[in-house]
Amino acid sequence: MTCGTPFTNLFPSPQQHKVTQCTVDHSMQQLQLVAMDFITSSTPPLLTTIAISIALYYLLFRTKKPSPSSGKRAPLPPGPRGWPVLGNLPQLGGKTHQTLHEMTKTYGPLLHLRFGSSDVVVAGSAAMAEQFLRVHDANFSCRPPNSGGEHMAYNYQDVVFAPYGPRWRAMRKVAAVNLFSGRALEALRHVREHEAKLMVTSLSSSAPPMSVVKVGEVVNVCTTNALARAAVGRRVFAGGDAGGGGDEEGGAREFKEIVLEVMRVGGVLNVGDFVPALQWLDPQGVVARLKKLHRRFDDMMNGIIEERRKVAGDAAGEEEGKDLLGLLLKMVHDEQRLAGGEEDRITETDAKALILNLFVAGTDTTSTIVEWSLAELIRHPDILKQAQEELDTVVGRSRLVSESDLPRLTFFNAVIKETFRLHPSTPLSLPRMAAEECEVAGYHIPKGSELLVNVWGIARDPALWPDPIEFRPARFLPGGSHEDVDVKGGDFGLIPFGAGRRICAGLSWGLRMVTLTSATLVHAFDWELPAGQTPNKLNMEEAFTLLLQRAVPLMARPAPRLLPSAYEELA
Ligand code: HEM
């Protein structure tokens, strides 16, 4: 199944759904009753005929096709009654994943809500996630249209928002082959390791006593620069200072501001996406911000491309394929086709949209989880000690962690899985959409429904996870309750990267980067909280935007714990 038709055609007005799907059944029943009344009472024959005709008309022409399995339309999944016009939007609160988790406790693991005029279904258990992302995955392989896809992501010409179909598949493959395949990952290993080393340098360069740093920012510099070098061949944050500020040249500063603004705007739930009547008003100013941001990103990318063209001069087609952008531009120059058809030649817009995706989907998702992992370890000194002991045994104290060490870090890998379980970067995954109506677990799912999978809630289901709120990496160790569970989309109780056809395209990069960066921080430093804070009272509150960030950024003081030679090597 594909959803290659433009989104506007594919997504009929949800208002139409409502009329046909909800009210017809009731009105039909009423009419039948009225007709029966007429027939059974002493009614004149003409009225009887009219009543029977109306009833027959409704029966034959106005009823919706019954669901193939039951012969009668299944009911919608249960859910709370919403407000007029806005539906359940006002009930979501700031932390939607938590609200939906609570609703699941009341209404069951499959919810039906309305966001404005859109049908929304929420999968709140591993079994439901499996139904949507494995059994019905083909039907849910598109993303719902929204202002971000339209105004920021080149009108859905990217990978994240693109309709499921040959162009999406081809674009995804370009990224997979050149960045995320085993071979590409290995070829770019030195880039990730080098950025991790620069992070250690920036943290260890000041003389003791070291100052307190904002851990998330330091890590973000590392993850963003590693990805930027792979994607556009340059770092975007200047190194040298732990906060990621410092003497950045104009281009780098612009890049950084754009990435940060994308995250901020992306986190706003745009009411206009769900209430068409409010779209033109843009009440939260989201569309205006997206358009402005898009222009800035586009100008910046055009500048980078122009610069490359100048350098390449006559040999424009020979642009080096050292980074993804170079490779994409060469494909554009060679007029390569993406999906076979004449109209499917790859364009510069495709290239820019893909680069945009990597930055938006691949930077903060990664750094956020590293910050959570360190916070959990600081909060659990016994687990931190065990992790450091393992790192000392496998890596030693005379050098930093390298990627080749990672497979041997059994305990540390369990720490990372446990962090993904409790603090998944995208707690509601990314939304999908029903291309066709279908029936799931005995409930009717209308065509065009938006699907949210509560990854966060599922990973806290006590039926699946004993003591779900406890940070307990041992559950993933050999002999533990979940020793064979991983995060790669096969175990529906733990799907921080999603699952099915649209599973995270950068899973391999993200997982590698998260594990390397966290292990490096824990191995190279001891961590002390600022005066007045104690590990067991560390604030672990969540602030939900698009990503599951910490409400209070983690601040901690690093103290080198390796032999001096391990740090000198970096000079
Ligand atoms: C810890 C890191 C990451 C997490 C937790 C994460 C999570 C996710 C999730 C939940 C989805 C939606 C999956 C679905 O619909 O089932 C997704 C999609 C995606 N991610 Fe990631 N991601 C991470 C890192 C990355 C990285 C490093 C990149 C690229 C550099 C990336 C690129 C993408 C793309 C392109 C998609 C859209 C895939 C599609 O629609 O076909 N992600 N990610």
TrEMBL record:
Pfam families: p450
EC number: 1.14.14.82
GO molecular function annotations of the record: flavonoid 3'-monooxygenase activity; heme binding; iron ion binding
Catalytic activity: a 3'-unsubstituted flavone + reduced [NADPH--hemoprotein reductase] + O2 = a 3'-hydroxyflavone + oxidized [NADPH--hemoprotein reductase] + H2O + H(+)
GO biological process: flavonoid biosynthetic process
Pathway per the UniProt entry: Secondary metabolite biosynthesis; flavonoid biosynthesis
Coarse class of the protein's main subcellular location: membrane
Transmembrane helix listed as a keyword: yes
Subcellular location: Membrane
Top-rank taxon: Eukaryota
GO cellular component, as recorded: membrane
Positions annotated to bind heme: C504
Swiss-Prot/TrEMBL keywords: Flavonoid biosynthesis, Heme, Iron, Membrane, Metal-binding, Monooxygenase, NADP, Oxidoreductase, Transmembrane, Transmembrane helix
Membrane-topology annotation of the record: Single-pass membrane protein
Ranges that cross the membrane: 38-60
Cofactors demanded by this protein: heme
Family: Belongs to the cytochrome P450 family.
PANTHER family per record: CYTOCHROME P450 98A9, FLAVONOID 3'-MONOOXYGENASE
Name the UniProt record assigns to this protein: flavonoid 3'-monooxygenase
Organism, as annotated: Digitaria exilis
Lineage per the UniProt record: Eukaryota, Viridiplantae, Streptophyta, Embryophyta, Tracheophyta
